[in-house]
Amino acid sequence: MSHTAHIPSHRKPRRSAPKTALRAGVAGGVLSTIAVAGAAGPAQAEPVTRTIEMPTITDGLSTAVAASAQATQQVAQDLRTQAQQNEAAASAAKAAKKAKAEAVRKAEAKKKAEAAAKAKAEAALRASRTQARTTLSAPTGGSPASTAVASSSSSSSSSSSATGSAASVVSFVKAQVGDAYVSGGTGPNSWDCSGLVQAAFRTVGVDLPRISQAQSTAGTQVSLSNLQPGDILYWGGAGSAYHVAVYVGGGEFVGAQNSSTGVVQRSLSYDPPSGAVRVL
Questions:
Q1: N or C: which end of the chain has fewer CB within 10 A?
Q2: What CATH architecture applies to the domain 142-278?
């Protein structure tokens, strides 16, 4: 037995025929494919066109856009409405201011006109009284000297104080000084001239006529130079007097003069009377 019988051989084992044939067939197929491709020659590749579809706006987004546009329009409309309202308010305020100024102007003009008419009426009344006194005094033929004497005599006689019923009449009319003058007024807080005289004499039980014309002839005619407290003074003619008052002594009288002054106490020189009657 050889010494090398058990030493393994280092040769590679031979491949089996079937595996070799398979590999040869694969290689041959690949080479055939390459040969065919080479025979066909180089061919230009056609461009590939791909269509990309863009996403469409969904219904929700469309609704949101529409709502936003509507909201913008509403805001614009609100701004226009507010501007119109502001303009209307400014115009109304301007018109109101102008109307107020016009009303004030008219009121002032009316007030001035009333004051002027009142002054004119008072001036006319004074002129009428002066004319009446001039007419009444003309027949007497008195001179300025005699008039002065009469005035002096009147002043001395006026210093006598009232007594009895005359004192009550004087006290009553003095208590009404400051009351309002109202045509047709008979008290207790507003009077006309004859209403005050009638009420004063009623306190002592004497019932006088209501109007000044009748009161100017209700008693005995007395001279203005011989007056006593409680005598009734009148302006105008006896029986046609347009104003009456009560002589209270001291050269003064109390009477309801007019709406401007009301019931006042005045000196005889303020508005000299035409005559006087004595009832008490």
A1: N
A2: Alpha-Beta Complex (3.90)
